[in-house]
TrEMBL record:
<protein>
    <submittedName>
        <fullName>4-carboxymuconolactone decarboxylase</fullName>
    </submittedName>
</protein>
<dbReference type="InterPro" id="IPR003779">
    <property type="entry name" value="CMD-like"/>
</dbReference>
<dbReference type="InterPro" id="IPR052512">
    <property type="entry name" value="4CMD/NDH-1_regulator"/>
</dbReference>
<dbReference type="Pfam" id="PF02627">
    <property type="entry name" value="CMD"/>
</dbReference>
<dbReference type="InterPro" id="IPR029032">
    <property type="entry name" value="AhpD-like"/>
</dbReference>
<dbReference type="InterPro" id="IPR012788">
    <property type="entry name" value="Decarb_PcaC"/>
</dbReference>
<feature type="domain" description="Carboxymuconolactone decarboxylase-like">
    <location>
        <begin position="35"/>
        <end position="116"/>
    </location>
</feature>
């Protein structure tokens, strides 16, 4: 196991929570292990592990990018992660307002719908 992988798993667990990571690890197969290693080392062990900006800011950036590019499937996961990163519901709404202005109201509208559903599930 590389240092980047170890760091990536630590950060991934900190942001997404043990339940999520344990579930992802349990579902990993020989087919997707190289991909899982790539995202653990690259996304979590490099980008998210950097202390150049806070986890709160990374969380907000990630939500904006997911909404702006129409990658809605991962928005609920990253909304749930806000409980660990410190991004508030107000932060999330500010993010999606930026998305509306710079990338389109329909994308922001759908992201907000997902955020509301996920926040409601979170309690």
């Amino acid at each position: 196991m590389s240092d980047k992988f170890s760091t990536g798993m630590e950060v991934r667990r900190k942001v997404l929570g043990d339940k999520h990571v344990d579930r992802a690890e349990a579902n990993k197969t020989a087919l997707d292990t190289p991909f899982q290693t790539l995202i653990t080392e690259g996304a979590w062990g490099t980008v998210w592990a950097s202390d150049a900006i806070s986890l709160r800011e990374r969380s907000m950036l990630t939500l904006a990018l997911l909404a702006a590019t129409g990658n809605f499937e991962e928005i609920p996961m990253h909304i749930r992660a806000t409980a660990n990163t410190g991004a508030s519901q107000e932060d999330v709404m500010e993010v999606f307002q930026h998305v509306a202005i710079y990338c389109g109201v329909p994308k922001a509208n759908h992201a907000i719908k997902l955020a509301k559903q996920t926040f409601a599930e979170m309690g």
